[in-house]
Amino acid sequence: MKNHLETKLAHIQDFATRKDPYGASHFPIYNTGTFDLKKQDGEKVYDYTRSDNPTREVLENLFTNVENGAGCVCTHTGIASVALLFETVLKANAHVLVEADCYGGTFRLLKIFKEKYNVTVHFADFLDFDNLENILKNNPIDLVLCESPTNPGLKIIDLKEVATLSHKYDALFAVDNSLATFISQRPLDLGADFSLFSTTKYISGHGGVIAGAIVAKTQKNADEIHYYANANGRSQNPMDVFLISLGIPTLKVRMKEHGKNALEIATFLEKQDYISKVTYPALKSHAQFELAHQQMDYIPGLFTADFTSVELAEKFIENAKLFGEKCSFGSPDSRAEIPAKISHATFSVEELAAIGITSSTVRFSIGLENIEDLLRDIREAVK
Ligand SMILES: Cc1ncc(COP(=O)(O)O)c(C=O)c1O
User: Which residues constitute the domain of residue 153?
Assistant: First the structure.
């Protein structure tokens, strides 16, 4: 019988390519640049850490397994996994179709590809299938890319439908799975060609390291990402692999707790007169509540709340003691930030307005603190 996901995560060392001769409970860190070709007798021979490293391979084997792919590359940052995707599949003059509500760093990277390689970027609302099909029908789209839930708009994209539509027009489909993570959602099972993610967030879970990964569904695409990762130097260093791996066995319990705390706070905020709207897929008021629960096993602890004025939003951020004004999400400490100012500052006011984000929208990443402490902190911050 196949083990469940959390069992695999708890036994991460079983994903090492070779058994550890000492039975160590954590896999060894091969913090080396080179390997002596004359001194290896296994099936797999290593030569240089940029190409392959037995420590990095543990994570790559694990991610390939849990995402049901053919191969994976662990990258030095999350945005490097997005860059690696573009470097692998896009040629000069390519066309990309991207959900307009995307991470600010992805948006900036797309601008660079547009300016340097004449890539045409079509931004669209992925909830509007007629428009999506129209764009796919009338343009030679090479790659379709979205997050789900989107960040910061928290839309739920029907990944199965978008995969089918992309393939109908011979486009590859990639999903940025940073927010949901493989513990909640497996994009390759829903038809995507690539699942990529920042492991900086929930996967490492402790805010102490920056990294990412990309998993390909087919062997051909897996070989290509591996080729470009080596050529462009995108691979992750073994020490960071170790740091990321420390959080992995507890991913499921953390994700459940983040979601539980977030739902309590979102429900509380929804009833306050200083809040005009809360957008959280775990709330019944969310337009894709049903799809969110169908597509994800756990709803992550990220949501937005629109304050009734910019002044109130800023007052809350200024006064809150337990909510750091920090970007990123998925750490044990709660965070509250204004996306227009921090995480999505690369967007113009108009571009943010188009995805429903204003200067009084606060993005919350709810941590693992005691719920009463968080609620008290919010009450005191808005007094
Ligand atoms: C959805 C999403 N993708 C990718 C990234 C980039 O990850 P990293 O910061 O690890 O480079 C982020 C970072 O916030 C993100 O939110």
Answer: 5-249
